[in-house]
Amino acid sequence: MIKHVIFDIDGTLIDTKGAFLGALDAALLRKGIKCGDILPYFSLPLADAVRDFGFTQSEYDEWNADYADRLSRAPLFGGVREMIETLSGKVRMALVTSRKHEIAHIGLEGAGLLKYFDRIIAADDVARPKPAPDPILEYAKGAGCDVKETAFVGDSVHDKECAESAGAAFFAPGWAPLSDGLKKYAVTAEELIAAAGK
Questions:
Q1: Are strands 92-96 and 4-7 parallel, antiparallel or unpaired?
Q2: What whole-number distance in Å separates Cα of residue 140 and Cα of residue 121?
Q3: Cα gap 176→21, rounded to integer Å
Q4: In Å, how far are 74, 153, 156 from 171, measured between CA atoms?
């Protein structure tokens, strides 16, 4: 029975591609790094890229501030608001993200969704962020629920690995662009609503 639905935010609830790529492109241009060099870091904490590419704290802060500004104006995917409003009456909801806690708040607040989530677990809230199971296990511990009662909805292979290693159900957002490897896990908003509370 799914009593708790946990969502990723970037590329799952909010169409953050433009915000992320815009801020990333500006940061890379300032640093003289080619975009292809950083592709392996997608869906991982930005701290990993900052460490490996030698960004100074001030350079990272500038990158982060630019992304936060763009994120506050990023659009929701079609049908997401209605889906979240409907789910809020059926299950408890939370957010797990590879971004920092502050950034997650900015995205949700800008989209007007913050009030629907019981908890946000960001990369800086756990020792091991996604793809490790820690964020989902931390949520289950705090909510006092069996992880088998949770479902995680995310758009990356790291989300899938996080859910599977934690023992939670995994769904990919059928309303958002997905890689070929995740399409078989896709559900529509209507299918997710139907599964919730069962």
A1: parallel
A2: 11
A3: 17
A4: 23, 5, 10
Neighbours of 128 (CB within 10 A): 12
* AA identity, residue 13: L
Active site residues: 8, 10
pLDDT digits (tens, 9 = 90+) for 136-180: 999 999 999 999 999 999 999 999 999 999 999 999 999 999 999
Residue whose structure tokens are 């630019």:
66
**pTM, full prediction:** 0.85
| CA Rg value for the chain | 16
What DSSP assignment string belongs to the chain?
-B-EEEE--BTTTB--HHHHHHHHHHHHHHHT--HHHHGGGTTS-HHHHHHHTT--HHHHHHHHHHHHHHHTTPPBPTTHHHHHHHHTTTSEEEEE-SS-HHHHHHHHHHHT-GGG-SEEE-GGGSSS-TTSSHHHHHHHHHHT--GGGEEEE-SSHHHHHHHHHHT-EEEEETTS---GGGGGGEE-HHHHHHHBT-
Q: How many whole angstroms separate alpha carbon 77 and alpha carbon 14?
A: 6
